[in-house]
Every structure is written in C-alpha cells, then in structure tokens.
C-alpha cells in the first residue's frame, strides 16, 4: 500500500467510528470511556424501528463524526448523499479510482493546513494567557508548568496513580469557549487517574475528596500538538474547574 493510499484510507475510516471517545481518552494507550448516554441506553428486545429512522440515525452519526473532525465546510451534502447511494447500491462511481484518491488526499492536505493555522493561533493565545495568569491572585505553579487555584480544600487522602475517582468538571479554552462539562450531562464522570491527560493526573493526585480546584493546563500537559477533534485545537492551553467527589 502506498503512503498516499494509507493516508486516504485513514481519512475515510474515521467516518463511522470516532464519536465514542470522551475527554478522558488519553494515553500512551488510548482508552475509550463510554459516555453516560451510551451506558444508560438499553434497547428493548424485539423493538421495531422504522427503516427511515435507522437510515437517518446512521446518516446523522456519520455527519456528526465529520463535523467533529472539522470537515463540515468542505462537504456538499447532495454530492455526499449521491456517493453513499452509489457505494451502498454497488454502482460504479462517477469518478475513477485515481480521481477518488486525489480528492480525498486534497481534503487531507486542506485539513492539515487549517489545523496548523489553528494551532499557531492557539499557541500564541495560550502562551500569553498562561504568562499573565501565573501572576494572578491565588494561582500556584508546579515544576511541570501546571497552574492551579484552590477554591475549596477538601479533606482526607489524595488519590494515587491508578485509583478511580469521581469528579464533576467543566472545561474551556482560554477564549472562554466551553468544550466539555459533566454538569451539562447531568452526572459526574468516573475514571482512573492514570487514564487522563497529564495535567489532570498531576492535579488529582494533589487534591483531596471534596476539593474544588481551577486548573490551567499548558498544551504539553494536555493534548499537545495533536489537539482533540474539532473543539480543541493543537497547542491549546485548557482551563478546567474540577470538583473531586470521591476516590474509589
């Protein structure tokens, strides 16, 4: 398989598989944690679902995945539907194999260029914010560069690496744009301390149950140069308000 074909195959593969990862997927080993909505849904046995609803749900999920990857601005939905219909119907595409590959490869290059531009903007905004924020009242800075402010102290034993914790949190960019919130989902998140971004791991191991902290996480302790989906650009510093509810 050529390098170009591998890139295009990878680009096409995310179209139906990417939506299940939460903000707490990180690693050296990626760990997918189901959302509360996924864990709570149990379809009834033998339940009849309209064929149109199934088709719409599948199309919506594919479209959502594409939007989360930042591709919505490049898609002509009429042409997109024609392409799906041709593939599902086993019809010959209106483009030959070389043209198909070239179109997807061009999209890949366009996405990379946009990500680089967003990354450069995020890096500058994050650098300026963290430089100013480290002097703010109540903000403490660790050797790694993590900044935090204690809102409530908490009491008891701090979690250790690998312990499972239960937290409520809200995450924003330095622009104030929210990208995730357990409060909005209506229930706290639960995960091991070593399966989150490094800034979270470091902070959680200093917190005590009942504590509420505000975290200011440099990019290198977050998602770094890769970013996360379309919401978190490369090189972005992250701000979290975290409440440690329980250590299991």
UniProtKB/TrEMBL annotation:
Superkingdom field: Bacteria
The reaction(s) this protein catalyses: [protein]-peptidylproline (omega=180) = [protein]-peptidylproline (omega=0)
PROSITE patterns listed in its UniProt record: FKBP_PPIASE
Entries under InterPro entries matching the protein: PPIase_dom_sf (IPR046357), PPIase_FKBP_dom (IPR001179), PPIase_FKBP_N (IPR000774), PPIase_FKBP_N_sf (IPR036944)
Domain annotation PPIase FKBP-type: ranges: 162-248
Enzyme class: isomerase
Annotated TM spans: none
Entry EC number(s): 5.2.1.8
Keywords: Isomerase, Rotamase, Signal
Name of the protein in its database record: Peptidyl-prolyl cis-trans isomerase
UniProt organism field: Natronomicrosphaera hydrolytica
